[in-house]
Amino acid sequence: MNRYTKGVSRKRGLKPGSLVHIGTVTGKKTEIHIMDYKDDILKEKDTYNIEDCYKYKDTDNMTWINVNGLEDIALYQKLGEHFGIHSLIMEDILNTNQRPKIEEFEKYIFIVLKMIYFKDDKLVVEQISMICMQNLIITFQEASKAGDVFENLRTRIRNPKGKIRKTKVGYLTYALIDSIVDNYFVVLEKLEDKIEGFEESLMVNVSNNLFNEVYNLKRQMIYLWKAVWPLREIINTLQRGEVDIIEDKVSIYFKDVYDHTVQVIDTIELFRDMVAGLLDTYLSSASNKMNEIMKFLTIFSTIFIPLSFLVGVYGMNFDYMPELKFKYGYAILWMVMLSISGFMLMYFRKKKWL
Amino acid sequence: MNRYTKGVSRKRGLKPGSLVHIGTVTGKKTEIHIMDYKDDILKEKDTYNIEDCYKYKDTDNMTWINVNGLEDIALYQKLGEHFGIHSLIMEDILNTNQRPKIEEFEKYIFIVLKMIYFKDDKLVVEQISMICMQNLIITFQEASKAGDVFENLRTRIRNPKGKIRKTKVGYLTYALIDSIVDNYFVVLEKLEDKIEGFEESLMVNVSNNLFNEVYNLKRQMIYLWKAVWPLREIINTLQRGEVDIIEDKVSIYFKDVYDHTVQVIDTIELFRDMVAGLLDTYLSSASNKMNEIMKFLTIFSTIFIPLSFLVGVYGMNFDYMPELKFKYGYAILWMVMLSISGFMLMYFRKKKWL
Amino acid sequence: MNRYTKGVSRKRGLKPGSLVHIGTVTGKKTEIHIMDYKDDILKEKDTYNIEDCYKYKDTDNMTWINVNGLEDIALYQKLGEHFGIHSLIMEDILNTNQRPKIEEFEKYIFIVLKMIYFKDDKLVVEQISMICMQNLIITFQEASKAGDVFENLRTRIRNPKGKIRKTKVGYLTYALIDSIVDNYFVVLEKLEDKIEGFEESLMVNVSNNLFNEVYNLKRQMIYLWKAVWPLREIINTLQRGEVDIIEDKVSIYFKDVYDHTVQVIDTIELFRDMVAGLLDTYLSSASNKMNEIMKFLTIFSTIFIPLSFLVGVYGMNFDYMPELKFKYGYAILWMVMLSISGFMLMYFRKKKWL
Amino acid sequence: MNRYTKGVSRKRGLKPGSLVHIGTVTGKKTEIHIMDYKDDILKEKDTYNIEDCYKYKDTDNMTWINVNGLEDIALYQKLGEHFGIHSLIMEDILNTNQRPKIEEFEKYIFIVLKMIYFKDDKLVVEQISMICMQNLIITFQEASKAGDVFENLRTRIRNPKGKIRKTKVGYLTYALIDSIVDNYFVVLEKLEDKIEGFEESLMVNVSNNLFNEVYNLKRQMIYLWKAVWPLREIINTLQRGEVDIIEDKVSIYFKDVYDHTVQVIDTIELFRDMVAGLLDTYLSSASNKMNEIMKFLTIFSTIFIPLSFLVGVYGMNFDYMPELKFKYGYAILWMVMLSISGFMLMYFRKKKWL
Amino acid sequence: MNRYTKGVSRKRGLKPGSLVHIGTVTGKKTEIHIMDYKDDILKEKDTYNIEDCYKYKDTDNMTWINVNGLEDIALYQKLGEHFGIHSLIMEDILNTNQRPKIEEFEKYIFIVLKMIYFKDDKLVVEQISMICMQNLIITFQEASKAGDVFENLRTRIRNPKGKIRKTKVGYLTYALIDSIVDNYFVVLEKLEDKIEGFEESLMVNVSNNLFNEVYNLKRQMIYLWKAVWPLREIINTLQRGEVDIIEDKVSIYFKDVYDHTVQVIDTIELFRDMVAGLLDTYLSSASNKMNEIMKFLTIFSTIFIPLSFLVGVYGMNFDYMPELKFKYGYAILWMVMLSISGFMLMYFRKKKWL
């Protein structure tokens, strides 16, 4: 399966703005979850009808529409038209190969992020797109919202006295991004566990299999880095307070997420160094182990070489070989051979070869 | 054959602006394909006469002249003179060693790009030059237009209701570049297939041949990178809306191609890392396999060393060797030798050398 | 134990500004040490009550409140409220995974630094946060103040005629940072001792253990670098004289610390090169030693090969082998064998293999 | 011979502006070649007298004075004084260790370039300095003008109808630099030939000698890169049209040379990658070949080990060894040994070791 | 001995501006050398009394005070006070761990440089500090002025007609820096000699000792680079003409030193590449030589393996072995064995293993 270039070529030759889903096909229906709140009012709704969302445009309440699933092209066509989103942006939302980025328009801003988590011990990267406009945020996820990184945020919104009830679109934007970035730390902890696991394995045993696993880890790190690195620039843009739709006072919150992002990037770089170290250690250990075997066996055989020579000597059939006639010849030879072995062992030990 | 420096030195000493074809010689005639359209009118024409193109200068219709083949110097001389293109630019068009670039002049802009495709499993890089002026774009290809990356674009132009019929030079410029960039993804998918193929081959077998192929892949990646990297800057220039001839409203489309280009560059970098990983894996596997053989054979021979010593001992001709007289001596010796072999195998297994 | 990602995920899902201690849990009570001075007046106090500090806000005297321990959340809640520190900053103070940074606010500046020292031969990194406001600095340490890097500074403050008694918040900020940076040199000296120790060990012996220790050193260096590198930017900010709260005339002092920081960074980079060199030397020595053994043993066995062949020849049972009947055959064979050995040794010596 | 630092220290302690020739001493007389032209007038002259050049200062005609040889200090002293060139610049002209650079003065600009060519298969770097002033360019070469890179340019000047006859100092400056840069392509083609030669050699044979040659090539590449890299900045300066003496309309020509220079740099970088690849391939091939030998020989000897053991067994002198008495014992043993050999060969083939 | 961190920690905890000598202790008395000149007047003086220098402050003559030795703290205290130099600067002068830098103050500029020379074949780095004020320059050296790099400059000053007699502080600053930079070339030549020496040694012999020496050279290169690199920025500052105390017209001289510095840096980088190449060559040669030995010995032993087998065969004691009875059996066996040896040698030669 093509992982990095998954089917992008399918779009080739279509006119720009043609909606095509590019990504893993799940076959699930696209679900919509709506949270509409202001001060102590909260309306929450689950639906499959995009039409149910139309009324939340241009209201005074803050609304968060969470769309799960990217495969219902018709739904996206309607959504784009009703909320006035450029067709190229709609195209980007459906294409899960996007690089994290931010784009500003007159009426809304468009943000693409990557949500990262482990699923069955495999690193999964899911694309999250956000359209933030006056009093309304629409988020798009590849998979179901069940168990996603926003659950804590929903709980905070449901709390009638939560500070978030009084905030506007900038704060919700922040809260969404913060949820994603906070989750990176969970992934990093798992990765550190893995690295440490490999470090311990390397102490015990060295197998080619391990080499492949560490290499795999290295590649995951590169992938992760590519997903997180552009985030820095995105949050920086938001923090500078130049985006109209974002209220100025959340700037300090974005500064905070910015610091976290830098921390994530720093940690990934540290891990990359560590994984590179693992590979070096692997290679050094493997050659070390091999050398140890070769050394043992070579020394072993070397001890026998002069002995074999000696027994060869007394296997010769010369008529005149005085030692052969001597009664204690055989016993003396054994003693000589034992002495030679002992002397050689001592010599090897002295040379620190043993 | 010189690949990177193909005959550039032929031009040495000529005065600047001298038209010389530098590139692979095909001997084919230069074909011209003209598409002239406006709203619901479309005139299409194939010709070998450059004179047929003269009338499309300074008209109200949008015209796309596609010149295939760079070897007819006379044709190019006429073309340059009639359309008022600087002789240095004409020289650049004929020199297929150009680096991708954009140059702005008062009346036109000049763009050089690289079209990349696989032909008989070999990566081919073909230079595309574009002259974009008021209501007219002239494109230059090295080879025939049959099967080129613009076929989908032509179909869209032929559609009488296509949006493209209503657009100007900026949009067509975009559509041409977009066709080229979209095609990069096809190449990337093929490359990923290759990388994965090599990964699987490495699991099964390790040959020096494989090493050379992976090295070749690595070089292709460098070459690709060099062809795509400058594109970023070109599209950036177009997108900033500073080029007069390009209408402002296509800026968002160029932003889109820009994102794709960055994606292509990112993917190439990822692939370079992966190919570097392949080489490391190759080297590790090769040394691993060698070590495995050496280990087996060394252990094998080591087991026989003490046995050979023993049979040597009882081949000696000492007059007094009591074991030789003993009736069961021979049988006991076999048992001793079997025990030694067994013990050594156990020892090697315990040491995890086997 | 997770070292780099120590429990950050614990904070996931909490609303921003929630105070959570992230770091090593010691269970010790949070101690507060207050120094309040102006000209020849000095009041010093140890307390566990944050309320005791309230009165030092907005006085004419210069006050330094040193808080040791980050685990008493309630204390920090009160402190933040009374001194008007943003909840996100309070959160940062309690999170020991911070990257060194500086943040300016209207009434105060917030600085995070890393204090580095060796404890039981292990490199320890302790986070120091500083809140600097008009006539007041509050510093936060992870551990007890006993034996920290500020002891010399306290002595200088206690000296009634010390220049520091006449200075304001900027100078004390400088003095605190200077104490931390000066201490880096102590760490660097220890590290250089270690590097030199390894260099000497490498001359004498080569063990896989050594490899791991050097690798560990390499990782410490990376870690150190990450802790010191951002300091450059922080001090640069302070030195430019753009921070309101810092009086202009301490700018030259910050320039001095800046130079020291650059020196520390330079030295770390030098050490990283040296450690990389150690690893290369290790690998070269290890392969060298192995080669030496293999060479010795191979040459040794090679000398015996023709001798063993010869004794084999005269162990054959052919009826007609004239040498066997010859009286001095056996003696001559010994002489032949000695000559062969001698000749081979000479040959090897000539070839410089011995 | 010191190649990179050739005698610079000889100048140590002299006062600045002291004229000292630093470079390879040839002992040849300094030749001067003068071309003075305007429209259809051309005067050409060869001389050894610097005084002959004096009259070309401040005329209406365009003059190109080409000075070959840097060893006649007296000549240079006079030249500097008459044409009003700063003594530090005169010093730079005579010092062939200059890095390519451009310096602007009120009345003239000073340019240093490196001319590169192969002589007897050795890469030679020759320094070219240029003083460009109103209607006059003086160029300085290390060696004779015979066979230099400017011959084509001279031919173009000699052509009475050549466009160059109507141009000013800016165009001649361009034409000189263009001649030098065009020549780089010739060198690059030769280098590519060499690289390809090595690639083919590596297929056939692997010798330590080859390693040294490839290393040498690598160093030449570094040297080349150092000579060409600064050129980019120089031409950029000329192209920006900020240099007074250079007429604005040649800017497009400099843009063209700039593109060529970038192309040269790109190609050198590509070649460096290729040479690095050659070294890797060399190392891989060498270890491959060694492994192949070791494998063959080890397998060969391994097959004989059990056979030798068996013949040893039947060489023992036990009184009771029934096989020895059996008539067909000897024949059966041979069959057994042949079977063992066959079986082992099959096993090795199955394991893909053979 | 700690080389890079030599005793800096001794200063920890002292108040800023405390004068402490940090560097190699020599125990020599601090010598002062004064040159006071204007046009044709020159007064020169050697003294140990700092008070003798006081009168040269604020005179019309140009004065150069050269202080040799950094260990007389009292002297430095007086000097700093009399000439009004900031205590932090005095501290920097005594600390020989400074990084090259320039600092501007109202009345003077402070420059730190590194003087580099070989002493007994060891690279020595000596710190030179300069205080440049109106008509006065004070330089500080670690060691005696005998044999330092300024001797030629002194000679030029002593020449009553020297141009330098008419210049001001800027020119002397230039002359001092120029003397230091010129001396770098001497060091570079020595280093190149060393590199070439190693290159030749590598052709002849490969020892682990050589490896260590080359590594040492590599480290020296890094050290050198660190000492020279910041110089670029310093001279750039001086050359831009923004420093008040430096007269504008020496700008061109500083441009000249700047070029030299860039040249030095370029050469060091080249040398670093060359040393890296030496290490690669060393490793390749070492493994090559080892392989050669192993190959020879393995082939040697392989030839004897079948021979030993054969003599083993005819050492067996089977009752029925017809060959043994045959009269020419023994002679034929010898011929067979010679043929086998010959055939194997031919085979190895054909395979190019020999």
Automatic annotation (TrEMBL), chains A, B, C, D, E:
Primary localization: membrane
Entry annotated with the keyword Cell membrane: yes
InterPro entries for this protein: CorA_cytoplasmic_dom (IPR045861), CorA_TM1_TM2 (IPR045863), Mg/Co-transport_prot_CorA (IPR004488), MgTranspt_CorA/ZnTranspt_ZntB (IPR002523)
Subcellular compartments: Cell membrane; Membrane
Keyword annotations of the record: Cell membrane, Ion transport, Magnesium, Membrane, Transmembrane, Transmembrane helix, Transport
Example of a GO MF term: magnesium ion binding
Membrane topology reported for the UniProt record: Multi-pass membrane protein
GO cellular component term, pick one: plasma membrane
Residue spans crossing the bilayer: 296-316, 328-348
SUPFAM superfamilies: CorA soluble domain-like, Magnesium transport protein CorA, transmembrane region
Gene3D superfamilies cross-referenced by the UniProt entry: CorA soluble domain-like, Magnesium transport protein CorA, transmembrane region
Transmembrane listed as a keyword: yes
Highest taxon of source: Bacteria
Assigned protein family: Belongs to the CorA metal ion transporter (MIT) (TC 1.A.35) family.
Function: Mediates influx of magnesium ions.
Record protein name field: Magnesium transport protein CorA
Phylogenetic placement of the source organism: Bacteria, Bacillati, Bacillota, Clostridia, Eubacteriales
Name of the encoding gene: corA
